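Quick start: what a row looks like.
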Amino acid sequence: MADPARAARLAQRIKVIVAEALRRRVKDERAELITVTDARVTNDLQHSTVYYTVMAPDEESRAGAEAVLAANQGTLRYELGRQLNIRLTPTLEFVVDEIPESAAHMEDLLRKAREQDEQVAALRKDAQPASEEKPYRWQVEEEPDSSESSSEGGSETSDDAGRPSAADR
């Protein structure tokens, strides 16, 4: 088993080689729409997964890009073997990268949340409290003289001042 750092370096090199090979070696117009976004290699360096996106709005172009990659998989693997100095050339698997679509969906959700926050802030702007200004605060009463508290046995501390005792509740 290879070092994970070596596998990561090899994956980055595979990403660059596949992207350059798509630009230089593949003679198909549909290959121009393909962008290689990431590559991953197993720790034994025998299999690689290349993630790509297609810069086209319609499904027909995306299917065409997938067909280009499938048809030129051998050419791309040949380029890998030629440019990498390793004993075994890893196999290639192409996977559509879902991150751009997920990011767009997340941006849409965040935009909706911001709009709802703005609506709540607008409603809160003119709102009035239902009761007193601070309904959950105890009314602070005057503290008794120190002579009175000493005669009671010092049952109240300064932290309990103004609050009813457990018997009063």
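That is the whole record. The mean pLDDT is 82. Residues 99-125 form the longest helix (27 residues).
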